[in-house]
Structures are given as structure tokens and as C-alpha cells.
Design a protein that fits this description.
single chain, mainly beta, 24-stranded antiparallel beta barrel, nine-stranded mixed sheet, 4 helices, 46 strands, globular
Length: 805
């Protein structure tokens, strides 16, 4: 009988968890000091949100009384206030590493999630850690958490003898809500107890469902508030000092303005006038031996903030804007290029984005880059001429995204690049859909894209994909297919490597939803993928992949992967020649990863891998090893070494064609080579407090490809020995980067940053295998370029200025 009573009690408990909790707030007229004390009397009269429930790892378990959590919410005409008492029976064990903004570090965490429209579509999330640091993001079920979004709000965290306290003031200008007199907001609270790796929410989040934002509670009681004028100005001034052995030391003073304006309660205009990206993170360049360009991360704040709409259909690669010139200068036999800019200056950029109460999202992005020329020297008469490599260019993105039933959407996306004069223009349109059942158990998503390149090339192509998957429960699966025609080209504003193929794929997975005796989490996944050349039907890729990812009760993360390519495949890209292919052998790849407990002062990541081909003597192996040490809550360091060796790799090095004999096919030259790569990265931080820190980042990279013997590609896709080629096509690339920076958030939204940067790099055909020399050759004044910069940005809120005057 007792067994049945326990079962019934559990069912009622879970049913209760599935209901939306309701919290009522109250209006205040007195001033609240954001000091983490909650000593104003008005706090005691506020309704309390409590009874938190575990989200991860033991989904559905109640929080213990010793970790009781009590939240109160108040509001006035300008902001909403949150007071949180987070009890802990061992306050001295609360983890509280000091970190930069948007970096949680090894710390306990409290968060509030607000949806001003209560439509389950988008949460504005605000976090405070136990070290008094802030983080914020916009979250959707489709795109996850976007921490590039930043708001200006106040908070204070204080550790007490009962646990820790958080006090927050979030101005309405940081939120989105309608102009209705009576407000009903979606609301949830979040707490992470870091030492136990346990995460709790106020309103129960059922991990069996494929949604997070639709399982919020409700905030009621807010009345007669108006959306404020959202006008923010961010003027800046920067100084740059540049020095290297090839030019005199120069100093440059810059100034400009970033602007944010709320067009209405839903839409925001972001604009940069005279942009300055001089302090963005350096790119991790590599020795690129493949047929495709290296893809870089976007580090410029304007192009990373609030870009969830622009990611629809995966059509925008924003590094195209201000990237490499679109054409290469033409030179005669007696000419040489003495200056060819590697990037194009951005004149200005703007974006408009937002979503209406009815779920219509609109995104508009526009950017203009300046006319840029290369300088060419005539070696006979020493005259110099200019040739345009990038004209004045305009980049545009339009997104219309209609959400419905809170969890589905259909979007139209258009990207176009218009270049002045007789240069290439590109236009791509797409229809993108993401359809989910009401209970978020099944999903149907895909897209249809059409590209058109102007009359200069007159190319038209399509790309389309369709996927169906089960998205809830322990066992899940998915199937899909896609097709890309030969002339599909979105590379003016996007990035795409492969065309002229069709593919089929599927996956199935198993995961635990609650901890076991050994694991806190465990997921096993099986994937299968096959790709075929569209015109011949030859298989270009075919692999079966099995992965396991897990974390143990002792916070040890473990994983393994097995990837099998059981068949020979036809590579149509490595030859760099239309309709020519290389037959690549079957192969097997195995990998492991181990990551120890980051809660401890010392932790290690280790990731070895081994790959063997069905070809004598051909294999590859490598590892990544990353120890990290946290000296205290202020100082930590992290080191990562990557090593990889590819034995008897077969790669393209040249193409020989007799211009006087257009009939005979070109001779395509390959090399049988060994490729060895070393990459060493070091980072460290010293945080004086949550608003002031020093950061150091170092990277040394060296990779070389040593050709052992020369081969030629036959018409049947096989390689044969070739003895008539004597050109040195070995490759060696090494680089060094250092960033030492100081950052101080001296006022809300306002920052002073100081950066010293040096870098060097070299590409050579002669390989020097002395590792020490490859480091020291970069660390001298002849090789290094130096940059010292100071930037001051000041945040101005129109509402605060208006109130003062």
C-alpha cells in the first residue's frame, strides 16, 4: 500500500511541476539601493517565489531545504527589481571565481529569464555570479543562447553567513514588452550550485521536451508602465601606435559613434559611424593545404550582437564584409605588385531587427565598403599605376521570419552584394522552415535557396535540404537529404565549399534523463552520411560515425568517437580542375577525450586521435593536451598544445598546361607528403574585481608539408609516379601572436581598454625543422609588428540624460 501511495504522490508532484507558476509583483515609489543587502522594508512585503526544482542532472528533483531559494520582484516606472536569497549551509564552500563579463567562470550562479510578451519565443536572460560578475544573453529554442547581446543594468552579489544574496535593477530599456496597461510577462529564475554541478529553476523545465523558453512561469501585477525611449549613444575615441622594421613608427587617432535606437517596442536600429575594430581578437591562421579557403570566426562586436535573425538559412558569413578584395590585380610580365590590400575598409553599417507581438521577425543589415586599389610597379620605366581590386560595394541582408504556435517558423531571406561598375554582383534568396509539433516531439525543417550571379558570369543555382526528426525522450532519431546544383554560389556574402552533389543522412541517439549510479549524463549517437556527385552518381563521401559523451558523478567528462569510411570515395575538389577526381581510400578514425573536474584548482583536457587508411603506410595521429590551473579566485592560467602528424598524405601542388595545345588535358601534379603541425596556446587572467582585469593570450603555430615524391593524377582518378617535376613545392608556415590587455568597466556600459599586440608570420618553401629556431626567428624586431592602443567608450542613455535635465 505504501508503494502505491508513493507512486500517486510522485504523479501529483510531477503534474504540479508541469503547471505554470505565477508570481505577483507590486509597485514601489521608494528608492532601492542596489547593494546586495535587501534591507529596504518594501522587500519584506513582496510575494516570494520559492520551491525550486532541479533541471540538471536529476531532472524534476526538489531543491533541498539547506539550499532553499527565495526570490522577490518589485517594480517602479523605470525598472524591475529582483531580490534573491540563495541559502547555503556551507557559505565558505561557495565557488566565486572572478571573471570578465559574460564569462561565468567557476562560480555559483543566479539568473532571471524575462519574456515581456509571454509568448514562449524569446527570453532576455540576466545572470549574476557569486563573485559579483554579470552576464546576459538573448535565448530562443532555435538558436540557443546569444551572449554577444549586451544590456546595461545594475546588480550586486554578497556572500553572507547564510548563503549569498543578489540584488538586481533591470531598466525597461533593456527589455521588450507591449504598451498595454496590464502586463503579463513570462518569467523564470535559475540557480546553479557549482560545486555540486546542480542546476535549478523556479518553474519546472522538463528535459524530455525539446524546448526551454516555453516552460516559463508567469509574472503578474505590472500595470501602467510605458516602454521607454530606447536611445543609446556610444561615442568612442581610440589611439593606435604601430611599429615594425619596415616602416616608421606611426600614431593614429580615431573617433566615432555607435548608436542604438528603439524604433518602437519591438524593433531596434543599430548603427556604426566610422567603425573601429582595431582591438578585436586576432585570427588563428593555419597552413591551408586544401582546396577551400580558411573560415574565420567573426570577432567584430557589431556583427556578432543580436544576429539570431541573420543566421536563418546559414546564408551570411559576415567576414565577407571588409574581407579580402573580390578580384586579384592583373599584371604584365614586366610588372610586379608592390601593395595589394588584404582587407577592405568598412565605411559604415546599420541593422534593424526585432519581432512583433504576433511573431513576425524582421531583420535588415546594410554595410558599405570603400573603393580599394592595388599598387603595381612597372620594372622597365619604374612608373606606378593603380588598379581597382574592390569597388565601392553595398552589402544587404533582409530577413522576414514568421513564428507561430510558439515553436515553429517560416522565413524568407535575401542577401545581395552590389559592386560599383563592371564587377560581379551576387543575389541569393531562400525560404527556410522549422516546423514542430505542439508538444515539441517531432520536427520538420529545411530550406530552399536560389542564387544568381549577374550577367558578368550569369550563374543560377539552387541548394535545398529537408530533415525530419524526433526531438524528445530518451530515444531520438532523424533522417534527411539535400541537393546542391553545380552553379549554386552564395560566396559574395556567404560561404559554401561544395556544389554539384546530393546526399542522404540519418541518425539515432540514446540519452539518460536522470543520473545513474555512475553517470550524471550519458548520450550515445549513431550517424550515417553519404554524398554523391550529381552528374555521375559517384560517391564523394560515405561514413558511419558513433559517438559517446558522458559526465560522471565525480564531474569527469568522458567521450569517444569512431568514424568509419568503408568505401573508396571520389574527391572532385582537391584537383582544382573541373570534372577531375581523386579516388581516396577507405579509412577508420578513432578519438577519445577526457576532461577532469574544472571545480578543482587543477584540471586537464586530453584528446588523442588516430586514423588509418586502407593504403600501405598511410595514417595520421595527434593529440590535444590542455592543463589549466586556478591559483585563486583572481588568477588563472590555461595552456593547450596541439600536435598532429599526417603520414603519406596525397595533396595537389601544381597544374601543368601547354597553352599551345588546348586539346591535351592538363597534367595535375600531386605530392606524397608528410604534414606535421604544432600549435601552442597560452592564456591567463588577473581579475582585480568583476569590472577590472588584465588578460594575456599567446599563440605559436608551425605547420609544414614535406614532399617525399611527386605523382600525377590519371584520368581514372588514380595517382602514378611522375619524374619530370623538380620545382620545390614544400610548404612551411609559422606564426606568433601576443595580446596583453587591460579592461575597466568604469561606469555602466562604459569601458576603457588598453591593448599591446605583437605578431609575426612567415611562409617558406625551405623547411627548417629546428623548432627552437622557428620560434626565435619570429621573436625579433625584424619580424615582429607592434601595436599599442587605448580605447575609451562611454555609454549615454537618453532617459538618464532627460531625467537629469
Amino acid at each position: 500500500m505504501k508503494k502505491y501511495l508513493v507512486t500517486i504522490s510522485l504523479l501529483f508532484s510531477l503534474f504540479g511541476y508541469s503547471q505554470k507558476k505565477v508570481l505577483k509583483t507590486k509597485f514601489i515609489s521608494e528608492k532601492i539601493e542596489i547593494d546586495g543587502k535587501l534591507d529596504e522594508s518594501i522587500w519584506q512585503s513582496a510575494e516570494i517565489a520559492t520551491d525550486f526544482i532541479m533541471f540538471d542532472p536529476d531532472n524534476g528533483k526538489k531543491i533541498p531545504d539547506s539550499k532553499k531559494t527565495e526570490i522577490r520582484v518589485l517594480y517602479d516606472n523605470d525598472a524591475i527589481y529582483i531580490g534573491a536569497m540563495l541559502y547555503d549551509e556551507n557559505p565558505q564552500k561557495i565557488l566565486k571565481e572572478i571573471t570578465q563579463r559574460d564569462n561565468f567562470g567557476t562560480s555559483d550562479l543566479f539568473g532571471v529569464f524575462i519574456n515581456g510578451y509571454n509568448d514562449g519565443q524569446q527570453d532576455f536572460q540576466f545572470f549574476v555570479n557569486a563573485a559579483d560578475g554579470q552576464a546576459d544573453c538573448i535565448t530562443t529554442d532555435t538558436n540557443g543562447e546569444d551572449y554577444s547581446w549586451d544590456a546595461v543594468w545594475n546588480s550586486k552579489a554578497v556572500i553572507t553567513d547564510k548563503g549569498w544574496v543578489v540584488e538586481m535593477r533591470i531598466p525597461y530599456a533593456a527589455l521588450r514588452f507591449s504598451g498595454e496597461s496590464k502586463q503579463t510577462w513570462g518569467l523564470n529564475f535559475f540557480r546553479e550550485i557549482r560545486r555540486d554541478r546542480q542546476k535549478y529553476t523556479w518553474n519546472f523545465i522538463d528535459s524530455k521536451l525539446g524546448t526551454f523558453t516555453q516552460q516559463s512561469g508567469v509574472l503578474e501585477g505590472i500595470e501602467n508602465i510605458k516602454p521607454p525611449t530606447r536611445l543609446f549613444l556610444l561615442p568612442y575615441s581610440s589611439f593606435y601606435g604601430n611599429a615594425n622594421s619596415r616602416q616608421k613608427t606611426t600614431g593614429t587617432l580615431k573617433g566615432g559613434l555607435d548608436l542604438k535606437y528603439g524604433i518602437n517596442d519591438a524593433f531596434t536600429l543599430d548603427m556604426i559611424l566610422v567603425p573601429d575594430f582595431g582591438q578585436t581578437k586576432y585570427d588563428d591562421q593555419i597552413l591551408n593545404l586544401g582546396p577551400f579557403e580558411q573560415q574565420f570566426n567573426e570577432n567584430r562586436p557589431f556583427f556578432t550582437e543580436g544576429t539570431d535573425l541573420f543566421s536563418k538559412g546559414n546564408l551570411v558569413y559576415s567576414r565577407r564584409i571588409g574581407g579580402n578584395p573580390s578580384v586579384y590585380p592583373t599584371v604584365e610580365a614586366n610588372e610586379e605588385i608592390i601593395d595589394n590590400p588584404a582587407s577592405i575598409n568598412l565605411v559604415n553599417a546599420l541593422k534593424i531587427s526585432g519581432r512583433t507581438k504576433d511573431g513576425l521577425g524582421i531583420g535588415i543589415l546594410n554595410a558599405v565598403t570603400e573603393k580599394t586599389s592595388a599598387t603595381i610597379l612597372n620594372n622597365d620605366n619604374k612608373t606606378v599605376r593603380k588598379e581597382v581590386v574592390e569597388p565601392l560595394s553595398n552589402y544587404n541582408v533582409l530577413v522576414l521570419d514568421q513564428r507561430f504556435r510558439k515553436n515553429s517558423s517560416i522565413a524568407f531571406v535575401n542577401t545581395n552584394v552590389t559592386r560599383n561598375g563592371g564587377f560581379r554582383d551576387g543575389n541569393v534568396s531562400a525560404l527556410v522552415w522549422d516546423l514542430n509539433t505542439k508538444k515539441n516531439t517531432y520536427s520538420l525543417n529545411g530550406d530552399f535557396k536560389y542564387s544568381y550571379i549577374n550577367a558578368l558570369e550569369n550563374k543560377k543555382g539552387i541548394n535545398s535540404q529537408l530533415n525530419f526528426s524526433e526531438t524528445s525522450g530518451k530515444y531520438r532519431y532523424g533522417i534527411g537529404a539535400d541537393i546542391t546544383t553545380k552553379d549554386f554560389d552564395n560566396n559574395d556574402l556567404g560561404i559554401n565549399f561544395e556544389t554539384n552533389y546530393y546526399s542522404f543522412y540519418g541518425n539515432t541517439s540514446y540519452r539518460i534523463l536522470n543520473p545513474t549510479k555512475i553517470f550524471n549524463s550519458f548520450t550515445a549517437r549513431l550517424n550515417a552520411y553519404s554524398q554523391f556527385q550529381k552528374e555521375t552518381g559517384k560517391i564523394q563521401s560515405g561514413d558511419i560515425n558513433f559517438q559517446i559523451n558522458s559526465s560522471t558523478k565525480k564531474n569527469l567528462s568522458l567521450g569517444m568517437g569512431l568514424n568509419v569510411n568503408p568505401l573508396e570515395t571520389y574527391d572532385y575538389y582537391e584537383s582544382r580542375t573541373a570534372d577531375r577526381f581523386l579516388i581516396t581510400p577507405a579509412k577508420i578514425n578513432m578519438s577519445l577525450y577526457i576532461s577532469t573536474d574544472y571545480n578543482k584548482s587543477f584540471a586537464v583536457d586530453f584528446n588523442p586521435s588516430y586514423q588509418i587508411y586502407k593504403e600501405e603506410g598511410r595514417n595520421s595521429y595527434g593529440f590535444a593536451f590542455g592543463p589549466r590551473y586556478r591559483f585563486n579566485d583572481k588568477i588563472s592560467i590555461n595552456y593547450i598544445i596541439n600536435f598532429y602528424r599526417d603520414n603519406n598524405d596525397k595533396g595537389f601542388i601544381d597544374r601543368l598546361k601547354d597553352d599551345l595545345d588546348p586539346v591535351t588535358p592538363a597534367t595535375i601534379i600531386y605530392a606524397n607528403r608528410n604534414v606535421i603541425t604544432y600549435a601552442n596556446s597560452f592564456s591567463g587572467k588577473y581579475s582585480l574585481n568583476s569590472k577590472m582585469s588584465f588578460n594575456l593570450s599567446l599563440r605559436h603555430y608551425w605547420s609544414y608539408a614535406e614532399n617525399k615524391n611527386i605523382l600525377s593524377l590519371q584520368q581514372n582518378g588514380r595517382l602514378a609516379d611522375y619524374t619530370g617535376y623538380t620545382v620545390n613545392k614544400n610548404s612551411s608556415f609559422y606564426s606568433w601572436n601576443t595580446d596583453l590587455s587591460y579592461s575597466w568597466w568604469f561606469a555602466p556600459g562604459s569601458q576603457i581598454s588598453v591593448l599591446y599586440r605583437n605578431n609575426a608570420g612567415a611562409f617558406e618553401r625551405d623547411i627548417n625543422k629546428d623548432f627552437r629556431n622557428n620560434v626565435t626567428n619570429l621573436l625579433n624586431n625584424d619580424a615582429l609588428s607592434h601595436v599599442f592602443s587605448i580605447s575609451v567608450r562611454y555609454f549615454i542613455d537618453y532617459n538618464q540624460v532627460k531625467n537629469k535635465f
